[in-house]
Design the sequence.
């Protein structure tokens, strides 16, 4: 009898034995070559942090791709799109209006529009797949979602370059304002969903998850149409920090997971209500899977939220000289963290299951939303703006 | 600081830093000016204005502040230091809003040749100085009228009086005040006619004032206003119409700044660092291990049945990753079933 699965391969994350996984090796060779090329060609320009980030990012990419073939295709598509975009731009931002591909597809704004359209299309497609129980439609929905992620990610990478083309001293990583961060949110949520779609082998929940992503896309579209939010503005100095480059994505993995959990919770609530043997019961996965799904994304979100909070406090220590100063944003981050810790405890130690946990996950999303948006809009305003 | 009403803080100059407040005393009340922010660059994308498309442009430094009234309410303002070019005309922009949730609404102050609001402010001053206003209208406007035929001195006087009244209405309430006035004094079927007549009077009046301002500034105007000058006049009328809604009795211009990138030096000592950083690492490693190295337990109970065969009873338990574990458990069980029958 062969040995039990090794510890680095969590159950379910199975992949063909390395020896036979030719596809992986080809892809890994390209990724390694890209990392090595970057490392050697840009070495003089990089400092220690950047080298460390590059190596960790390369390693994480390899690890994800090892167990997740879809991710390999994604990296290939994004690299091709982004590199084409950069090549078309050359050294001049004006090309955004002249080169056909940039105008319609690859300039960051167009790419984000594509992402938005694809996400919005994916939503009804997933629901259609759910109700018609058509495996083909389901695959189309997944393909739409994958394409949306590829366009969005490529768009962000191109935008990164655009900020530098605008003026080298303006350049910044495009996860620095609300507009960019919403794009990141859509991408992260969709990616985590796609990961679990494969793990749990069900597309039944896609429509629910796409609802929250479509809502974010709706906000994004409104925000750029009404407020011109897509315009690149220089960053305030306080935001120019290495910590931010990892703090923000880590936070958004957390937010993405928590919103995913709330969407699964909606599906779960429908499933609890379903008449045994009825349509709902046949269409939606059984409650054990839904509960497990919720638990998994909440725990992933919790872990990354912990990481984000730690990074945030390191950043605060560097920028303001103290790890924690109890400003409203920090207090609410703590509330979110404790809320999900409590959720996890109730499940693990009390063994709670059922509708109460689903409702809690939904309420959790509102708490998170408040910590993310509400605090900026209401609370920090209280002491700085007064009755304005 | 330039007064937008007749009296006010006479062209006062203050210097303050961001986050500082300045008390500004106007005849009615004392306002607290709270300086909020300063931006060195305002990069915008040129869109509809220029069809070339995505040209980026820097509108230069801007600063924002709040004016807080004694009752604690405030309005927020966003002023640009240099004129911004829109459709080939230059404006000094000042945005204002009453609530942070609102968008800024801008006052477009036409800039004069040297890029300052001085000429517009002079016009405004003149409008607010009742005595000079009367002089100018009675002098200039009347002179223009006198040139026209079939206007007797009597009618001319009535016209200048009406002009003065309209100018005052306009000064204090913008177009709204004129409309109210028409609605109150003119029969409904003549509203439109009266409106047109009033607007013409208004324009002629402001034009007279403007000519006076140009004169005062030593600009000679022969042969009517030049193109740039008449555009300025147009813009000035629009800006004057907006001033009553501007919410502040004065306009704050930025004349000079010293931009300090670094806000200060802070020295923090963190003796706990040696403990805190590894603590962070442990916490993180712990959480990820907790979730992702799933603890699974499997029991095998071997018993011998009566007929001497070995019976295997399998049981498994896990807290996390139950979906995957049950699949894994099934696989193990299937494999166990395939084992060649064991003999005691
Ligand atoms: C009174 C204090 C606490 C007690 C007695 C306690 C107890 C426990 C117990 C018994 C478990 C279950 C372990 C298992 O079955 O594998 C657990 C899990 C856990 N605890 Fe706590 N805990 C406390 C405070 C906290 C706090 C403050 C946090 C972080 C905010 C936290 C985070 C977690 C996490 C993330 C898990 C894993 C849950 C899961 O795997 O779903 N705990 N705790």
Sequence:
């Amino acid at each position: 009898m062969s040995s039990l699965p090794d510890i680095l391969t969590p159950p379910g994350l199975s992949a063909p034995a390395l020896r036979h996984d030719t596809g992986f090796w080809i892809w890994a060779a390209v990724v390694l070559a890209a990392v090595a090329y970057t490392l050697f060609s840009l070495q003089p320009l990089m400092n220690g942090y950047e080298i460390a980030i590059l190596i960790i990012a390369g390693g994480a990419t390899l690890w994800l791709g090892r167990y997740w073939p879809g991710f390999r295709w994604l990296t290939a598509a994004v690299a091709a799109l982004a590199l084409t975009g950069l090549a078309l731009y050359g050294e001049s931002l004006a090309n955004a209006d002249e080169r056909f591909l940039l105008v319609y597809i690859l300039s960051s704004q167009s790419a984000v529009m594509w992402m938005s359209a694809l996400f919005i299309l994916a939503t009804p497609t997933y629901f259609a797949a759910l109700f018609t129980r058509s495996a083909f439609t389901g695959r189309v929905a997944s393909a739409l979602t994958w394409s949306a992620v590829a366009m969005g990610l490529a768009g962000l990478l191109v935008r990164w370059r655009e900020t530098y083309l605008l003026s080298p001293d303006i350049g910044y990583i495009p996860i620095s304002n609300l507009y960019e961060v919403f794009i990141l949110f859509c991408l992260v949520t969709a990616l985590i969903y796609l990961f679990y779609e494969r793990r749990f082998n069900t597309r039944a929940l896609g429509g629910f998850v796409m609802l929250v992503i479509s809502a974010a896309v709706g906000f994004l579209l409104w925000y750029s149409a009404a407020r011109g939010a897509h315009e690149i503005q220089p960053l305030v100095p306080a935001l120019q920090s290495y910590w931010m480059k990892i703090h923000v994505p880590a936070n958004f993995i957390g937010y993405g997971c928590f919103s995913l959990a709330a969407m699964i919770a909606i599906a779960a609530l429908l499933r609890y209500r379903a008449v045994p043997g009825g349509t709902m019961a046949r269409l939606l996965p059984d409650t054990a899977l839904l509960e497990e799904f919720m638990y998994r994304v909440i725990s992933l979100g919790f872990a990354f939220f912990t990481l984000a909070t730690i990074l945030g406090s390191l950043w605060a220590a560097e920028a303001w000289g103290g790890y924690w100063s109890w400003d409203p944003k920090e207090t609410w981050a703590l509330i979110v963290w404790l809320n999900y810790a409590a959720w996890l405890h109730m499940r693990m130690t009390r063994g709670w299951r059922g509708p109460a946990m689903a409702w809690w996950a939904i309420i959790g999303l509102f708490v998170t939303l408040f910590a993310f948006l509400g605090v900026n809009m209401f609370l920090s305003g209280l002491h700085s703006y007064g009755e304005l | 600081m330039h007064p937008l009403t007749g009296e006010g803080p006479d062209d006062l100059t203050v210097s303050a830093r961001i986050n500082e407040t300045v008390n500004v005393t106007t005849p009615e009340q004392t306002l607290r000016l709270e300086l909020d922010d300063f931006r060195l660059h305002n990069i915008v994308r040129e869109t509809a204005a220029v069809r070339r498309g995505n040209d980026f442009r820097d509108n230069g430094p801007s600063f924002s502040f709040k004016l807080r009234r004694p009752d604690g309410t405030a309005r927020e303002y966003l002023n640009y230091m240099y004129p911004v070019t829109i459709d080939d005309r230059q404006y000094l922009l000042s945005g204002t809003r009453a609530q942070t949730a609102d968008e800024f609404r801008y006052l477009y102050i036409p800039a004069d040749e040297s890029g300052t609001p001085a000429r517009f402010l002079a016009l405004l001053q003149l409008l607010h100085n009742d005595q000079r206003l009367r002089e100018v209208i009675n002098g200039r406007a009347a002179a223009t009228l006198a040139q026209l035929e079939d206007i007797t001195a009597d009618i001319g006087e009535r016209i200048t009086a009406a002009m003065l009244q309209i100018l005052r209405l306009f000064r204090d309430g913008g177009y709204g005040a004129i409309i109210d006035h028409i609605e109150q004094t003119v029969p409904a079927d003549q509203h439109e006619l009266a409106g047109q007549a009033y607007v013409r009077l208004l324009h002629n009046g402001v034009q007279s004032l403007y000519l006076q301002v140009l004169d005062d500034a030593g600009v000679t105007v022969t042969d009517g206003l030049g193109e740039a000058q008449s555009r300025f006049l147009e813009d000035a009328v629009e800006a004057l119409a907006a001033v009553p809604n501007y919410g502040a009795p004065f306009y704050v211009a930025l004349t000079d700044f010293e931009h300090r990138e670094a806000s200060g030096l802070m020295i923090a000592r963190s003796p706990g660092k040696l403990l805190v950083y590894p603590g962070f690492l442990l916490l993180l490693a712990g959480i990820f291990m907790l979730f992702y190295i799933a603890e699974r337990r499997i029991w095998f109970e071997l018993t011998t049945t009566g007929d001497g065969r070995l019976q295997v009873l399998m049981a498994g338990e896990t807290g996390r990753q139950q979906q995957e574990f049950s699949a894994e458990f099934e696989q193990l069980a299937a494999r166990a079933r395939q084992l060649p029958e064991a003999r005691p």
